[in-house]
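In response to a reviewer's request, we include the raw inputs and outputs for one of the modeled complexes. The two entities were modeled together in a single run.
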Amino acid sequence: MTNVLVCIKRVPDLGGEIQLTADSMAVDDSGLGHTVSPHEEAAVELAISIARDTGGEATVLTLGSDDAVEQLRNALALGCTAALRIDADAAAFGPADVARAIAETVREQEAAGTTYELVLVGSDASDTGDFQVGIRLAYLLDRPVVAGISTISVQADTVVARGSAPDGGAEVFELPLPAVVTVMEGGVEPRYPSIPGRMKAKKVPVQEGTPSFEPVGNGRLGLRLPEPAPSQVTILGNGADAAPAVVDLMEKLGVTR
Amino acid sequence: MTTLVLVETDADGVVEVSRETLTFARGLGDDVAALVCGDGPSGLVDQLGAYGVSSVLHADGDAFTSYCAAAWAAAVVSAAGDASVVMAAGTPRGMEVLAHVACRLDATMAANVVEISRDGSALVVARQVLGGSAMEDLRLDGPVAVMTVAGHACEATPAEVNTSPVVEPLDVPVSAQDLRARVVRTEAGEPDESGSLKSARVVVGAGRGAGSADGFKDLLELTELLDNAALGVSRVVTSLGWRPHHEQVGQTGSRVAPELYVAAGISGAIQHWSGMSSSKIILAINTDADAPMVTKAHYAVIGDLHEVVPAINEELRRRR
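The model returned the following structure tokens for the whole complex.
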């Protein structure tokens, strides 16, 4: 039986353009939907399948405001069976702070009788792209960790983790449990929520806690966007009639056979 | 002061992104030391000398015969000495090892840095966030700054003056705990599935506009009619299971820079744009003339890809 904790972060679902807040300290997400990073979607999928295969539980955790309950409910609808929210302003928490707050929660849960043999996080959040929370968490919990993993199986007290090697092949790691693994998308197809899953998810209580410390932050001075280049598009035509102009272009570029 | 660069190698020597990182490190004006873990190919020291490295530290032995991030991190810490900056390329390995290093040195780590300058004793860096579509300015205080350098942050350029670095073998204390997570076996990939995509002269990209798993026939035919062309798809296409993940182009897929990128039925969300914005010429085919992909493209055809692409194929066949 392997209990899995999977950590997710609510991030804006960016379309084609990014707007910053007036002070340039954050992305203006008003009017945007929210989601989690593709790596975290893969981590949720792995957490649910490992928990089901081993008869354990998959618990989903986030650090964020009350809004982030939306992302917890989505993970519950997919098959996670418990949810934890660390109530904090995610923007004020740097990656070391986030790892510290998660480690604190893991220890509190352990003290209360719930252990997570496996903790999964995404390789990096799609907004801040820090690439370090999982590894920092492993150091705080004194657990082995491996990063950038696409498939995982648990065999007795060992987690077998497979990721891409620099030469394009695969690398296999075997870690003794308890362990931390950071996940990259591509190895598993995230499942879709079922209607009964969504109904059930509404009833699962979200357990809430607060960090015991003030965050250090990450030293952000501000965000910058590249100068938007003025559109220089040449319209070659409409519909099928444009084909000769397209092929002229392809011939000019020398890419036809 | 010294900047330490963790260098990755392959059979040909220092990999391109590590050469970029060495070039980037030189820009700071301090001595650059290079660390190599495990067996290095012959000629490596000369290559490092060409990039102006003042010394080469080499970690070798049982702990380095197969990849183990914690052992590599132990080597970085041993090699760091009084270095004020520790860098690696922003590869999966670079990210993983330096995150371990940041924990061991109780330092902050900045991922995907593209600019660096000094402000008194602190470093100010700019790094890519939001899939490379925005930059974050960041102040790094503390005695040592740990960072990975984003691919293409600068062009790999040999130093003006060659050096003849001395190789110093490193004695790295690696504990049994460090070795808890290491590669136990490697598997040859399917003959690098995304390789043809990354080296293609033309990428025919397709998005939601393909409509279904059966909607790629004409697009695949177009790749056959062009020279060295491959199909690339947006994330929605792989999420819906229409095409395999190794064809995905974007923030969490392959990054491509072909001579021509044909974006068919792709709106141009940042997730996708991050992976193909370096293409030399972008041709958008879209029903929506206001789609971001259309306004950012060099050329566009306004129309349904299922009408436009067969007509292009027909015209290509006709002109043969």
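As requested, we also summarize the result in words. The longest helix of chain A spans residues 38-54. Chain A has six helices and 13 strands.
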